[in-house]
Structures are given as C-alpha cells and as structure tokens.
Write a sequence for this structure.
C-alpha cells in the first residue's frame, strides 16, 4: 500500500476518533502515531 494512502487513512482515523470520542490526536507527530499503531497491530495480531 502506498505511504500516501496510509497517511490519508491515518488522518481519517484520527478525525473519526475526534468526532466520535472527543479525543484529539490530530496534532500529534504522524511518525509517532504510525509507530504506535504498528506496535498495537502487532500486539493484537491485526
């Protein structure tokens, strides 16, 4: 998958989290968010 597509999907996920739960991670470092998301996927076998 293209990095550009992954970036768009991550931004959409952050928007959805903000609108549904009120947690705003949109200004966090994208590199850090990607790293943590990959760690979570590995841990939970996604």
């Amino acid at each position: 998958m293209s990095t550009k597509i992954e970036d768009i999907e991550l931004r959409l996920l952050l928007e959805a989290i903000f609108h549904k739960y009120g947690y705003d991670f949109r200004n966090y470092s994208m590199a850090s968010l990607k790293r943590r998301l990959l760690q979570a996927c590995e841990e939970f076998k996604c």
User: Anything to note?
Assistant: Residues 3-43 form one domain. The chain has a mean pLDDT of 94. The first helix runs from residue 3 to 21. The chain is about 70% helix and 0% strand.
